[in-house]
Structures are given as structure tokens and as C-alpha cells.
Specification:
The chain is of the alpha+beta class. The protein is built from six helices and 30 strands. It has a domain of about 80 residues. Helix 1 packs antiparallel against helix 2 and helix 2 packs antiparallel against helix 5.
């Protein structure tokens, strides 16, 4: 059995991803996972795998904080620790065909790699060109240095103040996402308030008889440091519901952004099988795994299954993960998942308005004042106004604002620890503390460990999570399994000869499942973390305890995110 592994650039655990065979006993299913009775097709990979029973949840109040205790259904495989006995009982044999839906219908473009075609879902070769690698980090750092140099002078003049004011305005432009010349990241803000404007519809391609035969949507991303910023958070696939289509990604890799392009698509089963209820979880896969160098733009055209199956695409960077990640959701999804629920775009609009770019201050006001990005913005604006004012003591006051902004800048650079605000501390009674701030997630384990959860290697383990909300709007929480309960495989092979990274950390495909139920007591349910108090600064709080009654996959223990403001609010754990 071939093992492919490598050590990434940050403290990810070194673990192997196994190809291409598994022993027959690894396919033995246990009774707790019957097929859904309405499913008429053949069962078992690459058709839909059996699905566990829905998790149960009980909610109580402890010290004024809601606590949701979740117990998952039992996994579909014999118990086996995948770390002591790799690759684990939930590892599936490779099948080199497309996946099939619950009706037994083949789903085009769901085989990501074959022994002869390592990039089976690429529509043509990637196109690589050189770009300016300057990132928001570089330009903010330069602003701090230039301002410090001016303040170090023994004498100052109005021209010096004007120079400082220009640097401060440029820093504000970076945070707000205002146009900047010769910057690949121009228009993509550090402050995450533009969600309502990040919706795109797949444009249909028609034949001479006006029949839809395909479609495409263009997405622009920039990768740098711990960040992926994108111009697309929502994709409407309505026009291509019954035909394959493509996504054309233009990925700009800036300084400290070197990584592998690995969009991970999640598909539902045929929606008609569960209508009028929401479609059922089915299959997901890494669609590529292609090396990208700093200072380059790489254009990828990725082939997609028909739009009726589309759930989301989760783009992650394994050399800096967590937290380098960004998601494009199906724009038509509703929460709660019924006709009266708001679409995901409407959830964004309910917070930031329909046109936040035209109402920046009002939209940014929804971001909590404890968010490092918001602190930088506030301090830069105060310093800009101060340096342009007539206060004789303005320089010392401006320097104080710049110092505060600098501390926030350092917090922004690392989302794998909580910000340095003394009112934000990891909960010692939880394993993991998540902080929603700037419409994203900062996180820290209570014992200070790196971003993995080795405690969970076999079923019966409980994860305790404290959720803090620093923003002035509700955030949701969901926890998803990538193949631990229902199985996973990995078709990817070494593609080093083609400039790629092959099987390093790829999934291939997996059968996904949600861990927090969508209903409780017959009513819609979601973990909703209350907003922070803008008057007192008190954080919104919620606690979740999840008992996992299945063994994790070796690839990823759990995927956690905000299901109503997804985009970059993700923090998956190995």
C-alpha cells in the first residue's frame, strides 16, 4: 500500500493518506445505518452510502448560557481507531467511476482523479501568469513603517502630516476594499461586510435550439498569509439544474500564499427523493490538488455535476490550514430549510443591507468593536482625522491610535489564537473556544495545543466547545463529518511530474453527514449565538457538547462553520 505524506508549513499533524485498496472487512456495515426507505437505487459507494440516525440534542441553560448537548447517531462501520490501525474501518476501496445518486443515476463530473488522468475534473490545463505579489499584510506593514519613520523625526511640518494622512487613508482603503492601483487584492476588503454583493449566477450556455447544454461562473480569489478572500460567496446554479457546468477560478497567490489549489465540492442527493423536505447529504470530493507559487495568477476551469446537486464549494489551503479557507454556497438555500426561511443572501442582507459598498459605515458598524480588523479601521480613521486637525497635541494622540492599530494588526495575522483583548480568554471548561469577530472565526484550544484534536480517535469521545460572539448580529454553528460515519476514499496519486502535489492530504471522495440536527422536537433547530452587546461590550455566548458515536476519518476530524454567514467563518480541525 502506497503512503503519500508530507510536512506542511505550519503545525498540522503529520498523517498519511492512503490509496487505493482496503480490506473486505473494512466494508462491513453495522446495523445502525439503514438506507432511507425512499431510496430506490443501489446502495453503497459510489452510490449513496447508508445514513446514520439523526443526532439528538437537548438544550439547557447553565449560568445564563445556552448549552446544547448533541449525541450523534452510530457510525456505519465496525469500531476501529484509524490512527492506531490505519487507515481505519471507514476507508473505502477506490472506485474509478462517477458517483451515482439515490435513483441510481450517474452524476457527471464526480470522479476527481484516475491512475491515468490525475486532474480528471480540470477542463483544460491551468493558465499561469505573473502578478504583483503585494498583499494587504505587506501594504499595512509598510504604512506602519512609513508613519513610524515620520514620527521619529525631531521636527515635523504640514507636509509630513499630509504624508501620514495619505498613509492612513491607504490603510483604510485596504480594510474597506476600495480600489487600489496595481494590487491583485483591489476591491476585496479585510473587513467582511460585503457579503450581499458576493452573489453570482451561473451563466447558461445554449445550443442552436436554445437548449441549455452547460454554463459557467467566474470566481476571483486572492491567497496570502492565513487568508483566502474571494469575490464570490454565493452561487446560483438554477440555470444549470440538469446539466454539467464549470467554475472558472482566477487565483492570485500573493506573498506568503504558496499553497495547493484544492476546491472541495459537497453535493446533495437528488432533491426529488426527499421533497418537500430538504435534499439529503450525499458525496463530497477534492476536485483538484495543484501547486500554486507566490506572485502568480493561475486560472483553473473546474467541471461540476448538474446544478440540482450543488451544496457548496469549500476552498482550503492545506499548507496553512486552519485557517486558510473560503466557501461559496448555493445562493438558493434557505435557513430554516423551508419556503418561509430566508435565503443565505437574504441573511447577509438582513445584517449588512442590500448595497453595503454604498453604505460602508452602517455596514461596518455591524462588525463588533473587539474584532481586530474593526479596531484597525477605527484607529486608522481616528488617526487620519486627528493628524488633519488643529489639536497641538495631535501627534501624540495619533501615535497612540497607531499603536493600538498595530496591536490589532498582530492579532489579525493569526486566527489560530484568540485576540489579545483581556476580556476574551479561552474557556478552561471547554476543549475549544471559537470567537466570531469580523464575520469570521478566531479559535484557540484551552490547553494551548496546535490545531488538532487527538483526544478523539475512537467513538464515544465528547468535544466541548465554547462559542463567543463579538459581532453585533447572530452567528450560527454547525459541525459536519467528512466520511467518519459513512466512509471515505482517495483516488489521487502523485502528480509531481505535472507540477502538482498528488495525494498529499487529499480526500478523493467522502460521504458527508451533519452532526447537529436541523430539527429538535419536530421543530427547526440551529445553534444560534446571540450578538455582542454594543453598549456593555459583553460577548454573546453559547456552549455545545458533541458526543461522537463514530470513529473519525484520518483526513479530517470535523468541519465547523457558521451556516448562515459562511464565506470565511470556518474553522476545521484535524
Amino acid at each position: 500500500m502506497k503512503i503519500c505524506s508530507y510536512t506542511p508549513l505550519i503545525l498540522l499533524p503529520l498523517f498519511a493518506v492512503f490509496a487505493p485498496t482496503a480490506s473486505p472487512q473494512q466494508q462491513t456495515l453495522s446495523n445502525p445505518c439503514p438506507m432511507i426507505p425512499t431510496t430506490p437505487g443501489t446502495s453503497g459507494h459510489p452510490h449513496p452510502q447508508p445514513r446514520p440516525a439523526q443526532s439528538t440534542v437537548t438544550v439547557s441553560m447553565v449560568g445564563g448560557v445556552s448549552v446544547a448537548k448533541v449525541v450523534t447517531g452510530t457510525g456505519c462501520f465496525a469500531e476501529q481507531d484509524p490512527f492506531l490501525n490505519p487507515p481505519g474501518a471507514n476507508f473505502l476501496p477506490n472506485v474509478y467511476t462517477n458517483a451515482f445518486d439515490g435513483r441510481g443515476v450517474e452524476m457527471p463530473n464526480t470522479l476527481p482523479s484516475t491512475p491515468n488522468i490525475p486532474y480528471n475534473l480540470h477542463d483544460g490545463d491551468p493558465i499561469i501568469t505573473a502578478i504583483n505579489p503585494r498583499s494587504p499584510t505587506d501594504d499595512l506593514e509598510e504604512a506602519f513603517e512609513l508613519i513610524a519613520a515620520k514620527f521619529a523625526q525631531t521636527r515635523s511640518s504640514p507636509s509630513d502630516d499630509a504624508f501620514v494622512a495619505r498613509q492612513l487613508q491607504r490603510a483604510i482603503d485596504i480594510l474597506e476594499g476600495n480600489p487600489l492601483a496595481n494590487r491583485a487584492y483591489s476591491g476585496l476588503p479585510v473587513l467582511h461586510y460585503k457579503g450581499p454583493e458576493k452573489r453570482k449566477a451561473v451563466q447558461a450556455i445554449r445550443d442552436t435550439n436554445n437548449n441549455v447544454i452547460g454554463g459557467n461562473v467566474d470566481i476571483h480569489q486572492v491567497w496570502f498569509d492565513t487568508h483566502i478572500e474571494s469575490d464570490t460567496a454565493f452561487i446560483d446554479p438554477t440555470a444549470v439544474a440538469n446539466v454539467p457546468w464549470t467554475i472558472t477560478y482566477s487565483v492570485d497567490v500573493l506573498n506568503r500564499g504558496h499553497d495547493d489549489f484544492s476546491p472541495y465540492v459537497m453535493y446533495f442527493d437528488d432533491p426529488s427523493l426527499s421533497a418537500p423536505n430538504p435534499p439529503m447529504p450525499h458525496i463530497a470530493m477534492d476536485q483538484s490538488y495543484f501547486n500554486m507559487e507566490e506572485g502568480t495568477r493561475t486560472v483553473f476551469k473546474i467541471k461540476m455535476a448538474p446544478g440540482k446537486y450543488y451544496n457548496l464549494t469549500y476552498t482550503w489551503g492545506w499548507r496553512m490550514h486552519p485557517p486558510r479557507v473560503q466557501v461559496s454556497e448555493n445562493a438558493t438555500k434557505r435557513v430554516p430549510p423551508n419556503p418561509s426561511g430566508k435565503t443565505l443572501v437574504e441573511w447577509e442582507q438582513s445584517v449588512f443591507g442590500t448595497n453595503p459598498s454604498a453604505n460602508k459605515d452602517a455596514a461596518i458598524a455591524k462588525i463588533g468593536d473587539k474584532a481586530p480588523e474593526k479596531i484597525m479601521w477605527t484607529k486608522f480613521k481616528g488617526a487620519r482625522d486627528g493628524i488633519n486637525g488643529a489639536d497641538p497635541d495631535k501627534r501624540s494622540k495619533v501615535q497612540k491610535d497607531i499603536g493600538d492599530a498595530r496591536e490589532a494588526y498582530l492579532d489579525w495575522r493569526d486566527r489560530t489564537r484568540l485576540p489579545s483583548d483581556p476580556t476574551i480568554k479561552a474557556d478552561p471548561d471547554s476543549d475549544l473556544t471559537l470567537l466570531y469577530a469580523n464575520n469570521t472565526i478566531y479559535a484557540e484550544f484551552s490547553d494551548g495545543r496546535r490545531m488538532d484534536f487527538p483526544k478523539w480517535s475512537h467513538r464515544g469521545t465528547t468535544l466541548r466547545i465554547s462559542l463567543y460572539n463579538a459581532d453585533y448580529f447572530e452567528h450560527g454553528y454547525q459541525n459536519v463529518d467528512f466520511g467518519g460515519a459513512r466512509g471515505w476514499e482517495n483516488q489521487f496519486k502523485s502528480s509531481a511530474k505535472l507540477g502538482g502535489s498528488g495525494c498529499w492530504f487529499t480526500f478523493g471522495r467522502d460521504h458527508w453527514w451533519i452532526n447537529i440536527p436541523m430539527t429538535s422536537g419536530g421543530q427547526p433547530f440551529m445553534v444560534m449565538v446571540p450578538p455582542a452587546n454594543p453598549t456593555t461590550g459583553a460577548l454573546g455566548r453559547y456552549k455545545v457538547e458533541i458526543t461522537y458515536n463514530y470513529d473519525p476519518s484520518r483526513r479530517l476530524r470535523f468541519y465547523q462553520f457558521d451556516p448562515i454567514h459562511h464565506d470565511v467563518a470556518v474553522f476545521s480541525i484535524h
